[in-house]
Every structure is written in C-alpha cells, then in structure tokens.
C-alpha cells in the first residue's frame, strides 16, 4: 500500500477481477449518499466545453451531491462558465510550472472535494446516466474503478439548447452514436469476458476520458502522475491495478467525443513511446520492459525483502548475493534490521551490531539494495513482493521459475519450499501485490493472511530441489570459541574447532559460498589455526574500515605496530 492513503475496509470478497460478485442498485431506483467530483482538464475549445457542461447539467444524479471542476490548462483566452451548466461548477487555473492532461487531472483531483473522483474530457458529451451509472458501483464496493463507454461522434449538436432537447427526448444516442470506438479496448473486453477473466494486463482497459474511482483508492495508488502528458492513463491504470482495483466496464455510462474517430485519436500509444517512457515506469508488459536498460527501470518487477536482524554477516551475504546474481535482474532488495540502533551503538560493537555494520558497508553502493527498519506491507508499485528468509539461498533460476509459475497460474501467492520441509512456512513466498493489498482490506483478526490471499486470487505451491532452494545454515562453519578459551588452549599448542573448520572448508563448493563461510571462520579462529590468506584478511579489514567510517568511529591505528584481527580483544 502507498503511504499516501489507505482504502477503507470492504465487506465483499471479489475473486480476482470477477466483478459479477457485486450487485449494484438499478439506476433510478436508489438513494445516493456519496459526493462526486467530475474533473475536466481543458485547454481552449470553449464551444465544445459548453456542450460538455450542458450535458452534465442534465444528469440523473442529485445535483447537490456532485460538482464539476474545470481545470484551465493555460488557455488563451481564459475559459469561462457558460449559461447551461451544473449548479455546482467552477473553473480553476492550473498553476504555473506544469502543463498537460496529467498535470491538469492531478491538480483537479487536489482541488476537488468529492468522495468519488470522475474524469471526463472537455470535448465529450455525456449521456444523462453517465454519473449515476458509475457512482452506484462505488457505493457498493470501495475498490471499484468504473470504466465508462467511450464513443466518437461524427455529428455535433448546433448548441447547448439542441443538446438538452435531445437529452430530454431520449434522442441523444440516435443522434450521436455513429459507430466510432477504441477497437483495441473493445477487443480486450471481449477476450477477457469484460474483464471478469482479466490477466495481469487488465489495466490496459483503463481510459481517463470517462472513468471514476473512490478518492481513498486514488490516494492509495499515488494519484495521477502530473509529469506525464502522454500515457498518464495507462500508467495510472497500472498503479490502480497494483493497488487492488476491481475494474468494472459500465456499458450504460456512455460519453461521446465530438469529432470523427481518426486514427490518431483511437490508436494505442506508439511502440516507441511505450518503450522509451512507459516501460521505465511499469514492468508490464514484459515485451517492452526487456528493451529498457536496467539503470532506467524506475519500478522493479519484484521487490524482495530479507529480514537480516541478528543474522551473521556471511549468512546475509550468502542469501543476498544469490538473489542479486540470479537470472531475473529486474528486482530490488530491502534489508530489514535495526540500522539506526547499529549506527547509534556507543564505542566498539560486537556480535550482531558489528555484522549489521559490515552488511551495510558492503551494500551501500549497490543500487538495487535499500535498508529499512520495518518490512514493507506490499510490493507496491511493483507487481510482486518476494519474502526470503535469510537462512535460505535461492538458485540462479529459482526466481524466474517462481514468476513464470505465478503468471501461468494467476496465483496471488506462490510458495517455494523443500519437499522435506516440516512446515508450510519454511520457504520462499512470492506475493502478487494487488492480491495482497486487497486481502489486507478484508482479512479478519483471526484469519491467516495467506489463506485470504488464496481465497481472493489463488495459491500455487512448488517443491524445490537442492539446486533451487538451499539451506545456507548447512554451509556455515562452527562458530569460534570465546577468546579467553582460545588463549588458554593456545598455551598448550591446540586450537579447538580447527578440525571442524577444515572439514567444512573441504566440502564441495557451490558457487563459492561454502568456501567464503569456511574462510571467514578460519580468520576468526586464530592465527595459529592455519596460514592466513593475505587477500581475505585485507578484504575483511577494508570492510571493518568502511563500517567504522559509517558510524563515525576512529579508524584502528596500525602506526604503533599493533595489527588487530577480527574478533580480537578491544
């Protein structure tokens, strides 16, 4: 969920996007309660704006419950309100510093007051049921995003009076419905049973020219991006989808663009625009995302989370490095621990505090790594949230296969665990963000969140082999004995634990991780255990220096000839 807003709890449990589970009231046979703000971005075109406002003045929704906000996007001359308009109607000027449809829509939402936000273009004429037909869904379910029926009219009323006369007589459809439409949206609706069986690309049906959303869901999704003039509908529809929206095509809420349905007005955004701009902001569809270089991918496909609290440095490295080194590179990793506590530790620190400092120093320059004190609730705006226990290492192909299985099964939760695992919670979990966000709004206090996600979006489980999921604790060396014990036994010429360390080091290595753990143990077991590897010691000392710099502590002084090893008395 976005930190900017939270959708209120809902009662109905909708499976995926099957909106047929909801039963809205029939138009004209119910009593509305929620307020509606109709937002119209406009630049010039006063005559067509007059037609749009005249059509909104004839709406069946109670006039005291809806307002119209016209956002004047730097028109010359400035736009004015005509005689035929809704009772509550005003023009606001877009502030300097931005322009375009995205900027105007975002500012209109900010300036409005309604419980429901509804958008309409300035060159459109709305049928009398346009507002009511969409608002009824929002009274039933707070997660609904209604999609009006957009058409193009080759004819145009000669003025507001003629338009109002046609609306009162019921001739508006006959006069304006000349057949122009967005063919690609109609094709998507037909193939997905009007979005009831939509896959992860269902958000492509969203058009900001005639759509409505509850304000709470709008804020949870982060609002319209004011920096996008082109493609803001697709990008905002993507974020609404990830926030858990149930998209409902409302066929009775028709609005007509005045003017012929030219190719430039009805086609999809160009392939170049989708690749150069939209693919940076949204990982779906994959075909366009694959052409974007990794440094330009602003929203990752997967947001991985690893809780590293209390974990040894080498164990964290084994887990995180495997994630970063996999075949799926479109991801970021958040490491969760008490990082502020580690930095605020007074003087020298031992054990977990030192491990945290070493982890942070090692990954500070890794652009795909971030640090947090609490785990994120969902992966928003990424489509997936991956939870990996720090004791598990994923194979090189494991994440790619998890993603493929999740998409193939359309699962809200995909779990990977060893066949010999004693509990079902012992492995890796891949959550679909939209399923997780919706489950949080309906999950009861006594319910398991995973079970609710399975009810809303399905669950898929995978038993992984040794190469897919690895228990990293089996590759760790025996911890070194306390330093006091080491000193007393060194005087007798023996070093406890040396045999175990060498046995661990002699195991078959897998991608070098077992070797790294064993070498770290030899370094901490004492200089007499076996000859030191100069390169490893230099690397460890470099990490220690970086940790000292991170916490503001003085560097260890070697000018006096005293060279301290990791784990020695301080």
Identify the notable features of this structure and list them briefly:
17 strands, 35% helix, alpha/beta, 8-stranded mixed sheet, 7-stranded mixed sheet, disordered N terminus, disordered C terminus
Task: Characterize the structure shown.
Strand 1, helix 1 and strand 2 form a beta-alpha-beta unit. An 8-stranded mixed sheet has the order 3-2-1-4-7-6-8-5. A 7-stranded mixed sheet has the order 11-10-9-12-15-14-16. The chain is elongated. It is α/β, with parallel strands linked by helices and 570 residues long. The protein contains 21 helices and 17 strands. The N terminus and C terminus are likely disordered. Helix 1 packs parallel to helix 4, helix 14 packs across helix 21 and helix 19 packs antiparallel against helix 20. The chain is 35% helix and 17% strand.
Question: Can I get a quick summary?
Answer:
With 570 residues, this protein is of the alpha/beta class. It contains 21 helices and 17 strands.
Number of strands: 17
DSSP strand (E) fraction? 15-25%
* Helix percent band: 25-40%
**Spatial order of strands in the largest sheet:** 3-2-1-4-7-6-8-5
Number of helices: 21
Tell me about the largest β-sheet: 8 strands, mixed
Q: For the CA atoms, what is the radius of gyration?
A: 30 Å
- Measured between the Cα atoms of the first and last residue, the distance is 45 Å
- Estimated structural class: alpha/beta
Mean pLDDT: 82
């Amino acid at each position: 969920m976005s930190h900017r807003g939270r959708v209120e709890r809902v009662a109905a449990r909708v499976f995926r996007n099957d909106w047929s589970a909801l039963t809205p009231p029939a138009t004209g046979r119910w009593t509305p309660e929620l307020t509606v703000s109709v937002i119209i971005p406009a630049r010039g075109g006063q005559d067509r704006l007059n037609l749009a406002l005249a059509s909104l003045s004839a709406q069946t929704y109670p006039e005291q419950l809806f307002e119209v906000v016209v956002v004047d996007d730097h028109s010359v001359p400035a736009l004015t309100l005509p005689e035929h308009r809704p009772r509550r109607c005003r023009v606001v000027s877009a502030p300097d510093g931005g322009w375009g449809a995205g900027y105007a829509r975002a500012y209109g939402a900010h300036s409005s007051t309604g419980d429901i936000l509804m958008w309409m273009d300035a060159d459109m004429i709305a049928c009398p049921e346009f507002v009511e037909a969409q608002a009824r869904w929002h009274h039933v379910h707070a997660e609904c995003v209604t999609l009006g029926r957009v058409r193009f009219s080759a004819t145009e009323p000669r003025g507001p009076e003629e338009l109002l006369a046609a609306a009162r007589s019921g001739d508006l459809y006959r006069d304006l419905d000349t057949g122009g439409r967005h063919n690609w949206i109609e094709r998507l609706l037909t193939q997905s049973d009007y979005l009831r069986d939509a896959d992860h690309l269902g958000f492509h049906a969203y058009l900001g020219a005639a759509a409505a959303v509850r304000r709470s869901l709008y804020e949870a999704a982060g609002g319209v991006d004011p920096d996008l003039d082109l493609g803001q509908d697709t990008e905002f529809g993507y974020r609404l989808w990830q926030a858990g929206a149930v998209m409902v095509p409302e066929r009775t809420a028709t609005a007509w663009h005045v003017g012929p349905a030219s190719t430039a007005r009805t086609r999809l955004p160009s392939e170049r625009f989708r690749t150069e701009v939209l693919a940076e902001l949204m990982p779906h569809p994959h075909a366009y995302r694959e052409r974007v270089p990794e440094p330009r991918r602003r929203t990752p496909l997967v947001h991985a989370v690893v809780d590293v609290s209390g974990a040894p440095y080498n164990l964290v490295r084994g887990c995180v490095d495997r994630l970063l080194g996999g075949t799926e590179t479109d991801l970021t990793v958040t490491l969760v621990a008490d990082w502020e506590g580690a930095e605020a530790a007074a003087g020298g620190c031992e054990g977990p505090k030192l491990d945290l400092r070493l982890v942070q120093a090692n990954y500070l320059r890794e652009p795909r790594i971030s640090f947090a004190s609490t785990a994120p609730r969902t992966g928003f705006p990424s489509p997936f949230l991956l939870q990996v226990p720090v004791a598990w290492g994923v194979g090189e192909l494991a994440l790619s296969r998890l993603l493929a299985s999740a998409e193939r099964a359309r699962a809200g939760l995909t779990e990977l665990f060893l066949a010999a695992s004693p509990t079902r919670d012992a492995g890796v979990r891949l959550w679909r963000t939209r399923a997780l966000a919706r489950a949080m709004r309906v999950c009861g206090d006594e319910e398991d969140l995973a079970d609710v996600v399975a009810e809303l979006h399905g669950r898929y489980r995978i038993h992984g082999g040794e190469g897919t999921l690895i228990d990293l604790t089996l590759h760790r060396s025996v911890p070194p004995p306390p330093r006091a014990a080491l000193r007393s036994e060194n005087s007798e010429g023996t070093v406890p634990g040396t045999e175990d360390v060498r046995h661990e080091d002699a195991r078959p290595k897998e991608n070098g991780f077992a070797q790294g753990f064993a070498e770290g143990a030899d370094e901490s077991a004492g200089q007499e255990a076996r000859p030191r590897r100069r390169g490893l010691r230099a690397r460890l000392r470099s990490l220690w220096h970086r940790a000292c710099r991170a916490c503001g502590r003085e560097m260890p002084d070697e000018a006096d000839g005293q060279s301290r090893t990791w784990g020695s008395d301080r």
